[in-house]
Design goal:
There is one protein chain. The protein has 535 residues and is an alpha+beta fold. It contains 14 helices and ten strands. The strands form three sheets. It has a six-stranded mixed beta sheet, with helices on one face. Helix 1 packs antiparallel against helix 2. The radius of gyration is 65 Å and the shape is rod-shaped.
């Protein structure tokens, strides 16, 4: 059993584990060893995820990136762009190998540091053992020296006792005394408190002379005991052997710092790399455009989300093909369908610009209220920021201003009814009040005067005409505004039917005319032209 990196997510996992505890990928009996680099791969893989070599035994064939069989078609290898991507992925794999070598070197350095630490600890233990053995030898030598001093003191005391025993025989005999002095009392002599009740010891001179040296010898014997104090003092005053300064503690501290630094740097590097990968992946999910997908594949060719990113890349390739099909189209619906199919593609702004241009062209050519409203109501999803919005709103306002209401129609009809009634009634004053002075165009005559209008009335009402009437039908009226004025004029055309009864039968009957006329802001006729309709 050995620990490996999960081929799917890179998590540490045993080769005998049923599945990866991190991503759930099946591991046991589902691994295949790459004969080129020695890394483990899932059996369904066609190429090694580490070195890119083929797993079917064809070592000369190198495929830089093959996704696991997830139902996605393999990436075509014909375009130069894909070859560049393959080179970048190979460079990323080489960089990963270098990182692995650096990691192995760091682990080797940690092992060397541990070995140095163990060596230093062994040296320190050896030095402690040597110091303890030296201290034991010093203690033994001091004990020997003390025992020798004690034996020498005993011999000296014995010689002194013999000398003192021989001295009384050579000196003249003193008068015997029956009283024993305090200095000559034996050790078991009672104290002074019992002196009155205890009888005085009286001995013979010979006995006193013989017992005195023995008592002195007994007193001298305990005196030999204090002779041990100089040896003990010498032992206490003997200077301690200076300990050797060892660098073991320093080596331990340095080694610990090195190991901690290597481990901390590795942990921090892995943390920052994983965090950066998640940030780039989140950016791709929010906006799966070509730049974001390319950034992820360049930086993390073996990342944890490479399969999903690969699928996104395939969709991006398909969107480019779809765009090439409709790039020259003149139908806004084609570009709308492209946006519906690829809502996050980089070409969406271009499609929106196309839709905006085509919709505005149609609205401006037709110049109708419905077309301008259709342009302004196009959803922002398809048209984005409308470049011609202000122009469309201005044109729509002008149309609304020019829109003729019922009151406008009544006003125009009343002006022309007054004009034609004046002609029929031969009322020159009323006729003059209905026209401007001068009339810009009257029956195709420019700058006509009021007299020209009266002349027309007289020409129509000849003496042989007994009855004359006019009927107006089919008014088409358009408002006309003058800059700086709230009042408006009117441009109109309508059908005029003239009915005349005359004593001359050739002049009697009906005639139809098409009238084109203009009325200024003061309600005066400024243009009046008629064209006979042939029956």
């Amino acid at each position: 059993m050995s620990m490996i990196k999960c081929p799917e997510c890179g998590h540490d996992v045993s080769t005998h584990a049923p599945s990866c505890p991190n991503c759930g990928c099946r591991i046991e009996h589902n691994l295949e060893l790459c004969s080129f680099c020695g890394s483990y791969n899932i059996k369904q893989y066609k190429t090694c995820i580490k070195c890119g070599r083929s797993l079917n035994g064809d070592d000369d064939k190198v495929i830089t990136f093959n996704a696991p069989e997830t139902g996605v078609a393999e990436k075509p290898a014909a375009s130069k762009q894909e070859e560049n991507d393959n080179r970048k992925i190979q460079a990323a794999i080489a960089a990963q190998k270098v990182a692995e070598e650096e990691e192995a070197a760091a682990l080797q350095a940690a092992a060397v540091a541990n070995q140095m630490t163990e060596t230093a600890l062994a040296e320190e233990a050896t030095e402690k053992d040597a110091e303890e053995s030296a201290a034991t030898e010093n203690t033994a030598s001091n004990n020997d020296f003390s025992s020798k001093e004690i034996s020498f003191s005993a011999e000296s005391n014995a010689a002194t006792q013999e000398t003192q025993a021989e001295t009384p025989s050579q000196q003249p005999a003193e008068e015997p005394s029956t009283t024993v002095t305090d200095d000559e009392k034996p050790a078991d002599t009672p104290s002074a408190e019992t002196e009155d009740t205890t009888p005085t010891n009286t001995v013979a001179p010979e006995t006193a002379a013989s017992t005195q040296p023995a008592e002195k010898a007994e007193k001298a014997q305990p005196a030999a005991q204090p002779e041990q104090k100089p040896a003990e003092k010498a032992k206490d005053e003997q200077p301690e052997k200076p300990k050797k300064k060892s660098h073991a503690v320093a080596w331990i501290c340095v080694s610990s710092l090195i190991i901690a630094g290597i481990v901390g740097f590795k942990v921090y590097s892995n943390y920052t790399a994983a965090k950066h990968e998640e940030e780039i992946y989140s950016q791709v999910i929010k906006n799966p455009c070509e730049a974001n997908i390319k950034q992820y594949l360049d930086e993390f060719p073996n990342g944890a989300h490479r399969n999903k990113i690969y699928e996104m890349n395939q969709k991006l390739i398909k969107s480019k093909k779809d765009w090439q099909k409709i790039a020259e189209s003149s139908s806004a619906e084609d570009f709308m369908q492209f946006i519906d199919t690829h809502p996050h593609d980089d070409l969406v702004p271009s499609a929106q610009a196309k839709i905006d241009s085509l919709a505005w062209m149609k609205a401006s050519l037709n110049d109708t209220e419905d077309e301008y409203l259709r342009y302004l109501s196009t959803p922002a999803k398809y048209i984005g920021k409308q470049k011609h919005r202000e122009e469309a709103e201005s044109a729509l306002n002008n149309i609304n201003k020019k829109k003729v209401e019922t009151a406008d129609r009544s006003k125009v009809r009343s002006i022309f009814r007054k004009f034609f009634d004046a002609i029929c009634n031969k009322d020159e004053a009323t006729l003059k009040s209905t026209v401007a002075a001068p009339v810009k165009s009257f029956l195709n005559k420019p700058d006509a005067t009021e007299n020209d209008v009266v002349t027309f009335m007289r020409k129509v009402n000849t003496p042989d005409v007994s009855k004359l009437s006019y009927d107006m039908n089919g008014f088409i009226i358009t408002k006309q505004f003058v800059e700086g004025k709230e009042e408006c004029g009117y441009y109109t055309n309508f059908t005029l039917t003239q009915k005349k009864e005359s004593s001359d039968r050739n002049k009697s009957g009906e005639k139809k005319f098409t009238v084109i006329a203009r009325i200024d802001t003061n309600g005066k006729i400024t243009e009046f032209n008629m064209k006979k309709v042939e029956q």
